[in-house]
Structures are given as C-alpha cells and as structure tokens.
TrEMBL record:
Pathway(s) where this gene product acts: Protein modification; lipoprotein biosynthesis (signal peptide cleavage)
EC number of this enzyme: 3.4.23.36
Annotated protein name in UniProt: Lipoprotein signal peptidase
Similarity section: Belongs to the peptidase A8 family.
Location, primary (coarse class): membrane
Keyword Membrane assigned: yes
GO cellular component: plasma membrane
Active site: 158, 172
Membrane topology value: Multi-pass membrane protein
GO MF entry, a single one: aspartic-type endopeptidase activity
Regions that span the bilayer: 101-119, 125-146, 167-190
Gene source species: Mycolicibacterium fortuitum (Mycobacterium fortuitum)
Entry's Gene Ontology BP terms: proteolysis
C-alpha cells in the first residue's frame, strides 16, 4: 500500500532549487522594466546632447553667414575672440584641405560608429560624451553634403578664432570637448559598459 501511494504522488523538487527558480523568475520580471527604462533614459540623453549641439551649431553658422563678411574679422572681448567667416574644405581647424571627399567619408563612418556605440553604452556619462561628439560630427556633415561646391565636397562654415589658432566652429569645439570628456571618464574609472559609478579605492 505504501509503495502504491508513493508512486501516485507527483515528484517534488528540492526546496532550495524551487526557491532559486522563483527568485530568478521574480528578478527577471521585476528587473526587465527597470533595465528598459534606464536604457531609454541613456538613449534620450545621447540624442538630446546630439540635438542640442547640432541645433546650436546650425544656428550660429546661419548667423555667421548672414552677419559676417569674408575678410572682415570682428574682434570681441578685447581682441581675445575674433569672429571671422571662412569656408573650410578641410577637417577641424582647417587641416587636410585638399582631401575633402575622403574626410567627408571618414567623418561619416566615424559618426556612424559613435552613434552605434552611444546607443549601446550603459553609462549615462559615456552617452553624454558620445552624444556631444555625434552632434558635432552631424553639424559639419550637413555642411559637407549641402553647402557649395556640392555633396561630399561642401565647405564647412567656420567663424570663431582665439588668438593665433585656426578658425573653428561650435561643432569642432563640441567634438573636442566630447573627446576630452571621454578621456577623463576613462582615466577616472567610469566604465563604458556599466551604469555603476566606480568604486573608491580602499583607504582613500
């Protein structure tokens, strides 16, 4: 009789295994929405930073084209800053002026890579820096495609100069600031693939 009753009862797993499975299921259910929300927040941060830089760059370039004349610099802040309209066929800070098409393709590829990395970044701080670079790259790419003399060969509008430095624009400044920001994050121990802040060293 005992054997028959035992055979009729359903198999019961060990309590520890059942608890582990329940815990994993609950963690999966409760953690998924939070992870998705954090990812959406990082992407919004990436796109917001890129959009802000892009619109600022586009607006200041439009003002420069409308208000400045080539060859007529306007000194500001006691001559420390100069507004001077130039059309740059090269890269940032007027480098590589004879490689316009190649530079355009390189910037396009770099911009695509930055966008891909930014979308997959788990750190909001990295998303901010990558968004800043992306906005600057997009600002200059618009000039390359839509300004004279034509697509891939368009000249970038530059209008800012500090001392003896080459003339630059807001997009150039944003790319430089974004790169410096990412370097600072790396040196400070902020990981690209983690949303957590770096742990302080013992004894510090």
């Amino acid at each position: 009789m005992f054997i028959e009753i035992s055979a009729a009862l359903p198999a019961v797993g060990t309590p520890g295994a059942d608890n582990d499975q329940v815990t994993a299921d609950v963690a999966g259910i409760s953690g998924a929405p939070g992870a998705g929300s954090a990812q959406r927040t990082r992407r919004r941060l990436l796109l917001s930073a890129a959009a802000m830089i892009f619109l600022t760059d586009f607006g200041t370039k439009s003002l420069a084209v409308g208000m400045l004349e080539p060859g007529h610099p306007v000194p500001l802040l006691g001559g420390w800053l100069t507004c001077e309209l130039t059309r740059n066929s090269g890269a940032a800070l007027s480098m590589g002026a004879d490689r316009t098409v190649l530079l355009t393709i390189v910037v396009l590829l770099v911009g695509a890579a930055v966008a891909w990395i930014g979308v997959h970044a788990r750190s909001p701080w990295w998303a901010l820096g990558l968004g800043t670079i992306l906005g600057g790259a997009a600002g200059n790419l618009v000039d390359r495609f839509f300004r004279a003399p034509g697509p891939l060969r368009g000249h970038v509008i530059d209008f800012l100069a500090v001392g003896p430095m080459p003339v630059f624009n807001v997009a150039d400044l944003a790319v430089l600031a974004g790169v410096v920001w990412l370097i600072a994050l790396s040196l400070s121990g902020f990981p690209f693939d983690s949303a957590e802040n770096p742990e302080p060293h013992a004894g510090s």
